[in-house]
Design goal:
360 residues; membrane; alpha+beta; ABC transporter efflux protein; ABC3_permease_C; eleven-stranded mixed beta sheet; elongated; Macrolide_Exporter_MacB; single chain; two-stranded antiparallel ribbon
């Protein structure tokens, strides 16, 4: 996780309008906060001595990028940014170049793309100079980013397009708060730079001495803590859902096997009259319960593979279903079948053969 977060940019922290994390936030209150603008970015650069550079950016997910013959899945994240974004975000251009100040000011229709986008639209070709379309507008590829992999093992960081902020605002509008990537001169100056930025923003926004900040500052440490908390919540919630599913499935197996024992009472009586021992009857029904549970487990594994495929196809997530997860799923299914099938099996084994054969 620390490695993934470090890719956000060395010595960098973020200023945003919205909090990062999860919980019961007062979103109406946050919506009333002032938005970040390019003027804020320039003021920070000019007034905070510990700050080296500031990049302003906005983004929109779920976009489809097309060429004359190819198109991506609707999962590309489009960024609009100032030229400083190259330095503050930790990205590297593998071929071509990043856009410059004049292109940013003029709002030129140029773009830098991630390798996932380049491979999807122009497989086996040099993407530089080719035209792509974003929301129907033509953009010329001037650079391709070096591969970065996935963020926290989930979201691909190569499935993106970066264009000048002004060009982005022509497509998606200006009435949105920008995110500011703020880079200190040195790692030792990050906390000092953060204090300088906080003081400046409070003054620019007329925040009173005792009032809370009407903006958020995120460091790598705070983001690591947030994602750790999120990971714990997801783990606990997932465990709870799995446990509940197993119990519900087990009760279903219990009911099915009880019905099966009732319907096959005469068959059980005949088998016992012919010499079948209790242990054999017990084993038969326990095995049937395990097999029934395994069928359900196999269906669940199939659905898991299907969801993993959909996640990769629709969202661009680099999904993987490891063999140990399949083995664990089938093993737990067998265990549930055995545990919840014991009572019906024991009930079948205890039947009196004479009474069983008399049943209708």
């Amino acid at each position: 996780m620390n490695k993934d977060l470090s890719q956000l940019g060395a010595n960098t922290f973020m200023a945003t309008k919205w909090p990062m994390g999860f919980g019961r936030f007062n979103w109406q209150m946050y919506a009333k906060r002032p938005s970040f603008t390019l003027e804020d970015a320039r003021a920070i650069e000019q007034s905070c001595p510990s700050v080296k550079s500031v990049a302003a950016s906005d983004d929109e997910g779920g976009q489809k990028i097309v060429t004359a013959t190819q198109e991506t899945r609707p999962s590309v994240r489009v960024f609009g940014a100032t030229p400083e974004y190259l330095e503050t975000s930790g990205i590297t251009v593998a071929s071509g170049r990043f856009f410059g100040e004049s292109e940013a000011v003029d709002g030129r229709h140029v773009a830098v793309v991630g390798l996932d986008v380049a491979d999807a639209l122009l497989p086996g070709q040099n993407p530089i100079g080719h035209e792509i379309r974003v929301k129907g507008r033509p953009f010329t590829i001037i650079g391709v980013l070096q591969r970065r992999g996935s963020f926290l093992g989930m979201m691909s960081m190569d499935n993106l397009v970066i264009m000048p902020l002004r060009s982005f605002q022509q497509l998606y509008g200006k009435a949105r708060s920008l995110d500011l990537n703020i880079q200190a001169h040195d790692a030792d100056l990050v906390n000092k730079a953060k204090d300088e930025v906080e003081t400046l923003l409070r003054r620019r926004r007329d925040v009173g001495p005792l009032a809370e900040n009407n903006f958020e500052l995120h460091t790598n440490e705070s983001m690591t803590q947030t994602f750790n908390q999120l990971s714990q919540v997801i783990t606990i919630a997932g465990f709870g859902v799995c446990l509940l599913s197993l119990v519900v499935g087990g009760i279903g197996i219990l009911n099915i096997m009880l019905v099966s024992v009732t319907e096959r009472t005469k068959e059980i009586g005949i088998r016992k009259a012919l010499g079948a021992r209790k242990r054999r009857i017990l084993g038969q029904f326990a095995t049937e319960a395990v097999m029934l549970s395994l069928v359900g487990g196999a269906i669940g594994v199939g659905l898991g593979f299907g969801l993993a495929f959909l996640g990769r196809w629709m969202l661009g997530f680099p999904t993987l279903v490891p063999p140990w997860a399949v083995a664990l799923s089938l093993g737990m299914s067998s265990g549930v079948g055995l545990i919840f099938g014991i009572y019906p099996a024991a009930r079948a084994a205890r039947l009196d053969p004479v009474e069983a054969m008399r049943s209708d």
